[in-house]
Amino acid sequence: IYKLIKMSQEAKSFSYSPYSHFPVGAALLTEDGDHIFTGCNVENASYGLTICAERIAIFKAVSEGYKRFKAIAISSNLKSIITPCGACRQVLREFGKDWLVYMTKPDCTYIVKTVDELLPLGFGGDDLDEHQQQGQ
């Protein structure tokens, strides 16, 4: 876990955050434990087009063929724990409920929660499957 946290801290150094000056990094571990994908937040002058570090790491992994994950670590320069935004929680949920989210401080201390704990009663693909089955 320490390696994952350190990689998320390194990833934040690549942040493009000229507007918020709030760099965030993420490191995503695939379920097989063999691959780590990193991401950083990338801002845009049209603020709605900004993308969070967590989503970039996930999208990179998916673009390389990985869709099952074991854990993600998130880092910022906050003195308190960094937590994923609502949009990121929904994207995390897209890939399962039971994998781990390590929310860190700069000193590498962290709290860990499952995706389900961060987005209780979340909506995912399995809910769509259930809806489609009811319509048949």
TrEMBL record:
What biological process terms from GO does the record include?
A: nucleobase-containing small molecule metabolic process; pyrimidine-containing compound metabolic process
What EC identifiers does the entry list?
3.5.4.5
Record-annotated CMP/dCMP-type deaminase domain positions:
1-126
* Annotated active site: 54
Which keywords annotate this record? Answer: Hydrolase, Metal-binding, Zinc
The domain of life is Eukaryota
An example of a Pfam family matching this protein is dCMP_cyt_deam_1
Query: Which PROSITE patterns does the UniProt entry name for this protein?
Result: CYT_DCMP_DEAMINASES_1, CYT_DCMP_DEAMINASES_2
This protein's cofactor list reads:
Zn(2+)
Stored InterPro entries? APOBEC/CMP_deaminase_Zn-bd, CMP_dCMP_dom, Cyt/Deoxycyt_deaminase, Cyt_deam_tetra, Cytidine_deaminase-like
Name of the top EC class for this enzyme: hydrolase
Q: Which reaction does it catalyse?
A: cytidine + H2O + H(+) = uridine + NH4(+); 2'-deoxycytidine + H2O + H(+) = 2'-deoxyuridine + NH4(+)
What the protein does?
This enzyme scavenges exogenous and endogenous cytidine and 2'-deoxycytidine for UMP synthesis.
The record's family statement is: Belongs to the cytidine and deoxycytidylate deaminase family.
Q: Mind telling me what this protein is named?
A: Cytidine deaminase
Q: Which organism encodes this protein?
A: Lottia gigantea
